[in-house]
Amino acid sequence: MGKLLIVGSVAFDDIETPFGKSDKILGGAGTFIGLAASQFNVKSAVVSVVGDDFPQSYIDLLKERDIDVSGIEIVNGGKTFYWKGKYHNDLNSRDTLITELNTLGEFNPIVPEDFKDADVVMLGNLHPDTQTSVINQMKKRPKLIIADTMNFWMDNTWDELMKMIERIDVITINDEEARQLTNEYSLLKAAAKIQEMGPKYVVIKKGEHGALLFHKEQIFFAPALPLEEVFDPTGAGDTFAGGFAGYLAETKNISFESMKNAIIHGSNLASFCVEKFGTERMLTLEKHEVEDRLLQFKELTQFNIELT
């Protein structure tokens, strides 16, 4: 069984979309990544920090899915990271109304001893120094280190970000972030530049327009599954990353061909995430539903063509 280490926020989200309001619910990048990865036959752990206002029932939800929670620090008297946002009618843009870092502001991740030899490390969107500190705690170089990042770190911690990026194997970012990171509008040129920074593989997420995978001269594109309704896009990118990392940890195959399959698995799980508020859909997801939708992905992209 592959071993997957996940580092990311475990948080409270408060979401408003054109379809309703959630109030304060379970969220955070580490949570979404962990729930997605739990769909695979992997031994996984989430490293994060919460306050003592975080319900034990939420921790239990992760444990019930065989996710190791020994790396989630509970700070007595502390408050859990809290994010509140409101999505516009198109669901592609949103306004952040409140961000309270709370305990996450002083987060010093401690990797559980049993996961210092993890095959795959998935670094959720955090301060690049925090991400680097996790890499430094590993007993040996993992087979694959995947990292997510965002515009905020590019704007405020450029030097630290560059030091982190040069040590990873895969970066997962969206198209806007790829362009900012490289000052290139063309995603092909952007991916080539990012590979020169260190990562051998570049995954560029394009939301409802799918995802691109780059490695040297190789390119793969996976569409997003057309859905009748998108209820809440919160966590879809992290769910994608969790499916991607979970599949690779299970197969222990990090070839380009395997990563193509990982992209499809990630996209498949993300398509479920958006169907309900926050983590709600991922908590009820069953294996037969995942397999049925994978067949839809296959039918969506498979065709025969004769060239003369």
* Named CATH architecture: 3-Layer(aba) Sandwich
- CATH topology group: UDP-N-acetylmuramoyl-L-alanine:D-glutamate ligase
Number of helices: 11
Which radius of gyration do the C-alpha atoms yield? 18 Å
What series of H and E elements makes up the topology? EEEHEHEEEEEHEHHEHHEEEHHHH
Low-confidence stretches: none
Terminal residue distance: 46 Å
Strand content: 25-35%
So what's the overall shape?
A: globular
CATH homologous superfamily?
Answer: Ribokinase
What is the makeup of the main sheet? 10 strands, mixed
Query: What number is the mean pLDDT?
Result: 94
Name of the CATH first level: Alpha Beta
- The oligomeric status of these chains comes to single chain
- Count of spatially separate domains: 1
Strand elements, count: 14
Class by SSE composition: alpha/beta
What fraction, in percent, of the residue positions are helical? 25-40%
